Amino acid sequence: MHPAHHKSQTEDLEIQRVPFGKDYVMPLGQHIGVPSKPAVVAGEAVRRGQLIAEPGGFVSTALHSPVTGTVREIGDLRGVDGRFAPAIAIEADAFATQRVEPDPAMDWQSLSLEEFIDAVQMAGIVGMGGAAFPSHVKLSVPDGTRIRHLLINGAECEPYLTNDHRLMLERPAALLEGAEIVRRKLGAEETIIGVESNKPDAIEILCDHISPGQPVRVVPLKVKYPQGAEKMMIKSVFGKEVPAGQLPRDVGVNVNNVGTIVAIADYFLRGMPLIERIVTVAGPGVTYPANLIVPLGTPVRDVVRFCGGLKGGTREIIMGGPMMGRPIASLDVPVLKGCSGVLVFTEEQTSRRKEYPCIRCGRCLEACPYFLNPSRFARLARARMFDEMKAHHVFDCVECGCCTFACPSDIPIVQLIRTAKDDLTHRKESHG
Ligand code: SF4
Ligand code: SF4
User: Fold this and answer.
1) How far is the CA of 208 from the centre of ligand 2 (A)?
2) How many domains does the chain have?
3) Does the residue 15 lie in any domain?
4) Which ligand 2 atom lies nearest to the CA of residue 361?
5) Is residue 143 in a domain?
6) CB 25 near ligand 1, within 6 Å
7) Which of 232, 247, 270 is the last residue of a domain?
8) 172-186 and 163-170 helices cross at what angle (nearest 10)?
9) pLDDT for 269-321, tens place per residue?
10) Phi, psi dihedrals of residue 277, rounded to the nearest 5°
11) What is the pLDDT of residues 228-279, one digit of tens each?
12) Are 340 and 321 in contact (CB under 8 A)?
C-alpha cells in the first residue's frame, strides 16, 4: 500500500519535553500479556523511576513511577478503550524537581543472557513501535536457536508518525550503543538498521556514526506500507519469508524497534527504566503539532493542551498511527508505553463513507501481507462467528489495515476483525 505520508507536519520538529502535570495513571496491563502486580499501596510516597509494579508472570513487565509524588489510588480505572481495568493512579508532588536519580550503569558485559533478560523485564521495556510486547520475551531465544542478525526497525511506515525518525536523528549514538549491547548478548553476527528511503537524513547520520569495523549496516528500504511489519521487513532485507505460524527467530533474525533499542541503552548505560517515551502529536485537528517526550501515564488532555489544544471540528483522536492505532475513549486516558502517536482528526478525515456490499473483487486478499482472507473475516465477524475466525487464523492478522484501505466497497474490515479478536481475547481472559 502507498498511503499519503503526512509526515511534513512534524518531521523537522526537534523533540521537546512536556512539562509535568498533576495526575498520572499507570494501567497494570499496558503491555501484551499478564498484567503487572502492584508493589506499592495507596498513600505511599514514590520517586520518579521507582518500581511500582512487578511482572505478573513471564510474559509481563515491571512498571516504574513516571513522577515523584503519592499513590492516590490502586483500582479499576478507565482505560484507553473506555473499559475499566486495574491501574495505579499517582498524584505528582508539585514541589518536587522530578529529576530522576537513575541507578548506576550496569556492567552489562558480565551479565549472563538470563540475567540480561531478567534486567530487561525489570526495566519495564516493551516494543516501542506500538505493539508493547515485552522485549525480554522477544530476546529469549530457545536452546538450539541461533540468531545471526539483529534487525532494527527504523521504517516508521505509518503516516503522520515521525518519533522514530527524530530519535534516529537526535540520538544516533544511543541507538548504536543499544544495538551493540543486544547484538553481543544475542551472539548475532551483525546488526542491520532498516530505514525507509524517505528519511535520507536519518540514513546519513546513522552511517556517519558507525565506527570502522563495527558490524552494522544501514539498509534503505522502499517506501511502502506495512514495511515495518516484522515479516515484511525480513523479506525486504534478507529476501526470505518467515512461514505462517513461525517467528523471525526461526529464520535466525531478531527484530526490534529503534525506540526499544534506545530504551535498552538508556537502562544498561544510564540506569533509566522505561518511564517516558517519544510521542508524535499531529493531524489536522491539533494546533501546534510536535514530537514530545511524555512521562508515561500523562493524560492525553495535558499533551494536547501543551500543543495549543484542539482546533474546532475535532471528531476523533487516535493513539498510535492512523493505520494500526485505535481511537481513544476520552481525553483523560493516559499515554502508555506503546503510544507512538496522538493523532487528531476532524470530520473531513473521519466521516464514514457509504458502505457497499462485497463484490468479491479479491483486492483485500491481494493486499493482505499475511495471505489471509479478510473478506471472509468480515463476513464471519458480522455473523459473530468468532470461533470460526480463530480456526481461520484470525490471530495471524496484525491489524495493519491494508485490507480496509484496498476495499472498493468501503467495508470496515479491520475494525470488524478487531471486534472479533477483542471478543475472543476477553472470553479467554474471563474463562482463564
Ligand atoms: S488487517 Fe489483518 S487481514 Fe487485513 S490486511 Fe492486515 S493482516 Fe491482513
Ligand atoms: S476488497 Fe472489499 S469488496 Fe473486494 S473482496 Fe475484499 S471485502 Fe469484498
Assistant:
1) 46
2) 3
3) no
4) 4
5) yes
6) no
7) 270
8) 90
9) 999 999 999 999 999 999 999 999 999 999 999 999 999 999 988 889 999 99
10) -155, 165
11) 888 889 999 999 888 877 899 999 999 999 999 999 999 999 999 999 999 9
12) yes
**Residues flanking ligand 2, CB < 6 Å:** 358-364, 375, 378, 406-409, 411, 413
Residue nearest to atom 4 of ligand 1 (CA): 403
Residue 13 covered by a domain: no
Predicted model pTM: 0.92
In the reported structure, the alpha carbon of residue 301 is separated from the centroid of ligand 2 by a whole-number distance in angstroms of 38
Q: Is the pLDDT of residue 215 over 60?
A: yes
Closest of 60, 114, 100, 269 to residue 179, by C-alpha: 269
Residue 113: pLDDT above 80? Answer: yes
- The half-sphere exposure of 327 on its side-chain side, counting CA atoms within 13 A, is 10
Q: Please check whether residue 429 is in contact with residue 421, taking contact to mean a CB–CB distance below 8 angstroms.
A: no
Tell me the sheet residues that pair with 338: none
Find out whether the beta carbon of 52 lies less than 6 Å from any atom of ligand 1: no
Show Cβ contacts of residue 281 under 8 Å, excluding neighbours closer than 6 positions: 10, 289, 290, 291, 292, 303, 304, 307, 341, 342, 343, 344
Would you state the pLDDT for residue 430?
Answer: 59
Distance CA 348, CA 74 (A): 40
Q: Which ligand is nearest to the CA of 372?
A: 1
Within-domain flag for 285 = yes
pLDDT of res. 431: 54
User: Residue 37 above 70 pLDDT?
Assistant: yes
User: Is the pLDDT assigned to residue 101 strictly greater than 90?
Assistant: no
Check pocket membership of 406 for ligand 1, CB cut-off 6 A: no
Q: Write out the residue range of the structural domain in which residue 77 sits.
A: 21-100+275-348
Residue 198's domain is classified under what CATH number? 3.40.50.11540
Specify the ligand 1 atom closest to the Cα of 398: 7
Whether 1 and 224 have beta carbons less than 8 Å apart is answered as: yes
Pocket residue to mutate for ligand 1, from 400, 404, 419, most atoms within 8 A of Cβ: 400
Q: Say which residue, 197 or 350, is predicted with more confidence.
A: 197
In angstroms, what is the span from residue 361 Cα to ligand 2's centroid? 5
- What does the pLDDT read at residue 79? 83
The SS3 assignment for 76 reads strand
Residues 72-94 have pLDDT tens digits of 999 999 888 788 899 999 999 99
Residue 334's beta-bridge partner residues? Answer: 299
